[in-house]
TrEMBL record, chain A:
Name under which the protein is recorded: Spore germination protein KA
One BP annotation, GO: spore germination
Biased composition (Basic and acidic residues): 15-31, 539-549
Keywords: Membrane, Transmembrane, Transmembrane helix
Length: 549, 409
């Protein structure tokens, strides 16, 4: 539905970006020319090695091994790699050893030996020729091994990537009871492979690129050709190409650079550390962005309701999944408005509280010296402090903090009459509810907005809450993620996709991919997939005597 | 330019939203005195005496947990006088430290004396007009007592006296049928209607009202003073004129179709009160007809119930006996209803809403009857009471053990 894409706005942005692009290009070329290392390699090995030494500042982890090759007049070659980025064993076994064992090769010049080494000697899968400095450094610093030959202006780069990396562990943020136990690691190659293992299809396409002018971070865009909407891939490419940052240290750098709308607390790009979640989203027509150095993979476009869904929703029965999704919607409202409703009801609308309940609250509030709003604010801020401290502090101190937190906030403050027990209950329920939201960025954004709701409730009561809620709805409906309305398929309402929002229709009934996100191939499965019990043989054979039921 | 204009407009709109809205007012809970019941009397000088029953939340059981709890009474009562109802309300603020809050007032007590002499019509406007008071507030008449005596009495079990009275009416209406829980809006509606008049339940203090104010009253197992629902006050032209009691009161509740459950005692073979027939369900339909240019009312009662007590050996296993008992029950219910109708006719006040029924069915004819319905037409009206009573069960057994006892002796 192209009408949902705001083309006119995008053009404007493009113009700005293009101008910037040109500017930065100019700057880049200036920088390079001053350093004397751009352009093609030299024919002389010694000169080449000198440039490497100079460019890397003679860093000790850049290893250069010089060898003599050939039976005739021996030709000097050099093998260069970065220690720790390569798998030392394959460098030793498949490069150095094989070259040394082939002493008897007859060679006339560097070009020939290059051919020989490339074709006959190296026992590694992925090799390529390099003939300019930029590419040489890029491959060497990403863990490849470089073979330079005296008398040749070309070098061989062999893939020996390896070194120490974290093994694949269970996900630590998006846990499920049922489903895959794998989670991404910091190595991009491993991460891509994890998804490849799930989707065994040649249409799973990957577009690599390097981002970050200094860090030269590997970033890959992954999508399923034939399901993804071309416009979205094009948009992702364009936004990624526009990034001119010196460094990409985490997926968050990219997320913040490519999101549609910056004036919002809501996440408009999803991130996950679960390969199965990436696979599921690719199959819905989304684009995944892998970034080297982080276990979090970005998924775009993201819609609001997606942040309340878990991969497990698709693994368990649909009725149970629907029930849990309803629960999450309830917790969303509790964590958004819990304290606000309490403040509004106890300071503006006492008539709405049942008498007995009002008396209980009134008795507790009698000793509290602060207005309900201040009381709520104290408790909420205290809780946020506790939560924040809990994340950062060393694990060993954990129990101490929880004891202090529970005793000081839960008991002492109530006994001292600073806050009322009812308020402690409200804040606790709200806190727990906010953690029931599966997505952390969504939960924290709700928590932030909660303070706004409390303020509105304290000044205008329910009226203020309603005003704040209308504003929030308007804001959410105005958000877009890569052109897709954030609240879709709820608003705009797309009946075909409404089966996978708050509800989750059973798999045999879930026919369509999200309309606004994937387009080419909207149908997920064949017709009439509803499982039926087998026709009982007894029943059909007995038809003669017991029919006309 | 356009953006800036839009932003200013948005800002102005937001300002408007916050200022043009209706009444809103911040009131902290610990700045409120929550009124549970209001009593209205008239003193010798002709001024209204308003009695406020204010809840002391700390002393209400259940709220005791946190704050160490007070030992004092659940409610504190203040009185204030004034020339009007509102006057007396604001005079109350000279005695009470907190803002008077009436949204949780669920009982309004009017003294019998006031209701008889001045009537209730002029009083109720101040309550109906007030945005805080609920239209569903229950109204009772202090029977042979001052309203303040009712409001001041402390009660056990339900700590808040207003709660006790309201719950008593609710329960009694449900299981006995001799009382009615009427609300402020219900009374006003019936008062302004020419074809019907309100019935309001009376509440009286049994015992010494002075002792009822003391906390010692609720520390004994038998209270020195208790509040008891007693009778239905009948009104004419907004003034209390008489009381319905016992079977007459229940008859009125039958006709009004407010009765849910009740017990009817039946005579068997000349002995009174032998069989207890418990009505489980009933449905009453009142219909009007005009015959010979005179309105006639038919009251059709359909009751279903169980036999729950037999004091003499009655052969309940015999269907003919059950049919006979059904006839007896019909007769007894009919007697109660007719007694009530006769009483109303004598007092010339249509508490049943027969006039309304005629008005609804014959709007044209009502033009003739309507003017002097209460005075001349209603007292002469022919009321035909039809009762169908059914016995559905006889409890856990049919023939009583009394039959075996009789046989063995």
């Amino acid at each position: 539905m192209p009408s949902f894409f705001k083309r006119h706005k995008r053009k404007k942005i493009d113009k700005v970006h293009n101008n910037k692009k040109e500017q930065t290009k100019k700057e880049d070329s200036k920088e390079n020319s001053s350093q004397n290392a751009a352009g093609p390699l030299n024919r002389s090995l010694a000169a080449n090695l000198e440039v490497i030494k100079q460019k890397t500042g003679s860093s000790p982890d850049v290893i250069i091994r010089r060898l003599m090759v050939g039976g005739g007049p021996p030709v000097e070659i050099a093998i260069g790699y970065v220690e720790g980025l390569v798998e030392e064993q394959s460098v030793n076994d498949f490069l150095i050893k094989s070259i040394l064992n082939n002493d008897d090769i007859e060679v006339k010049n560097g070009e020939e030996i290059l051919n020989k080494i490339e074709k006959d000697i190296i026992a590694l899968g992925s090799i390529e020729r390099v003939n300019d400095w930029e590419k040489l450094f890029q491959s060497m610093l990403s863990g490849k091994t470089i073979i330079l030959i005296d008398g040749s202006s070309e070098a061989i780069s062999a893939n020996t990537r390896g070194g120490e990396k974290r093994s694949i562990l269970e996900p630590s943020t998006q846990n499920t009871i049922r489903g895959s136990r794998e989670s991404f690691t910091e190595a991009i190659g491993t991460n891509i492979a994890l998804v490849r293992r799930i989707i065994n299809n040649p249409n799973l396409w990957i577009e690599p690129r390097k981002l970050g002018t200094i860090t030269q971070t590997d970033v890959s865009v992954m999508y399923i050709n034939g399901i993804v909407k071309d416009e979205i891939v094009e948009e992702v490419r364009k936004r990624l190409d526009n990034i001119k940052l010196d460094s990409i240290l985490e997926s968050g750098y990219i997320e913040q650079m490519i999101q549609d709308q910056t004036m919002t607390t809501f996440p408009t790009i999803f991130h996950t550390e679960r390969p199965d979640m990436v696979a599921g989203n690719l199959l819905e027509g989304r684009v995944a962005i892998f970034i080297n150095g982080t276990p979090f993979v970005l998924l775009a476009p993201a819609v609001f309701i997606q942040f309340f869904q878990t991969p497990e929703d698709y693994y368990i029965r649909s009725d149970i999944a629907t029930a849990t999704r309803f629960l999450r919607v309830i917790t969303f409202f509790i964590s958004l408005m819990g304290p606000a409703i309490y403040v509004a009801a106890t300071t503006f609308h006492q008539e709405m509280i049942p008498t007995q309940f009002l008396l209980i609250i009134a008795a507790q509030r009698d000793v509290v010296p602060f207005p309900a709003f201040v009381e709520a604010l104290i408790m909420e801020v205290t809780f946020e402090i506790l939560r924040e401290a809990g994340i950062r502090m060393p694990k060993i101190i954990g129990p101490t903090i929880s004891i202090v937190g529970a005793l000081v906030i839960g008991q002492a403050s109530v006994q001292a009459g600073i806050v009322s027990p009812a308020m402690v209950i409200v804040v606790s329920i709200t806190a727990i509810a906010s953690f029931a939201t599966p997505s952390f960025p969504m939960a924290i954004s709700i928590r932030l907005i909660r303070f706004l709701f409390m303020l509105c409730a304290a000044t205008f009561g329910f009226y203020g809450i309603v005003l704040a809620f209308i504003t929030l709805l308007a804001h959410l409906c105005g958000l877009r993620s890569f052109g897709v309305p954030y609240m879709s398929p709820l608003t705009p309402f797309i009946p075909e996709n409404a089966g996978d929002t708050i509800f989750r229709r059973p798999w045999w009934d879930l026919r369509e991919r999200p309309r606004l996100i994937g387009s080419k191939n909207t149908v997920r499965k064949g017709n009439n997939q509803k499982p039926e019990p087998p026709a009982a043989r007894e029943m059909s054979s007995r038809k003669g005597d017991g029919d006309e039921i | 330019m356009g953006m800036r204009y839009k932003k200013i407009l948005l800002f102005l709109l937001i300002i408007c939203i916050t200022t043009i809205s209706g009444c809103w007012n911040k009131k902290e809970l610990n700045e409120l005195s929550i009124i549970s019941a209001l009593g209205i009397d008239k003193n010798e000088e002709g001024e209204y005496v308003k009695t406020f029953q204010i809840i002391n939340p700390k002393n209400v059981a259940g709220a005791l947990q946190g704050g160490g709890g007070g030992q004092g009474p659940a409610v504190t009562v203040y009185s204030a006088t004034g020339k009007t109802i509102l006057d007396s309300h604001y005079m109350g603020s000279t005695k009470i430290s907190r803002r008077l809050y009436m949204a949780h007032t669920n009982l309004l007590v009017i003294s019998e004396e006031l209701a008889r002499e001045e009537g209730i019509i002029k009083i109720l406007d101040a309550f109906e007009r007030d945005p805080e008071i609920r239209p569903t507030t229950t109204i009772v008449i202090a029977h042979e007592a001052k309203a303040e005596d009712i409001v001041k009495s402390l009660t056990a079990i339900d700590n808040i006296p207003a709660d006790k009275v309201v719950k008593t009416l609710e329960t009694s209406e449900r299981v006995w049928g001799g009382e009615l829980k009427v609300t402020l809006q219900g009374v006003i509606k019936k008062l302004t209607d020419s074809g019907t008049d309100p019935l309001i339940t009376g509440v009286r203090v049994i015992g010494d009202p002075e002792k009822g104010k003391k906390i010692e009253n609720i520390q004994a197992s038998e209270l020195d003073a208790t509040l008891e629902a007693d009778g239905l006050a009948i009104f004419k032209n907004g003034k209390l004129i008489n009381w319905l009691h016992g079977d007459n009161a229940r008859g009125a509740v039958w006709v009004l179709d407010k009765l849910k459950k009740t017990i009817v005692n039946l005579e068997w073979e000349g002995v009174k009160d032998v069989i207890g027939y418990q009505v489980m369900r009933q449905n009453t339909e009142v219909s009007a007809a005009i015959k010979n240019e005179q309105p006639e009312i038919t009251v059709h009662v359909r009751a279903e119930g169980d036999i729950r007590e037999v004091r003499n050996p009655v052969k309940l296993s015999d269907p003919d006996v059950l049919r006979k008992i059904e006839k007896l029950a019909e007769k007894e219910i009919k007697r109660q209803i007719e007694g009530s109708v006769e009483f109303a006719k004598e007092n010339k006040t249509d508490i049943f809403g027969f006039g309304d029924e005629v008005h609804r069915s014959y709007p044209d004819a009502w033009k003739d009857f309507g003017k002097d319905w209460q005075e001349t037409v209603f007292p002469e009206i022919k009321v035909d009471v039809k009762v169908d009573a059914f016995i559905r069960r006889t409890g856990l057994r049919n023939n009583s053990y009394l039959s075996d006892y009789e046989n063995s002796h």
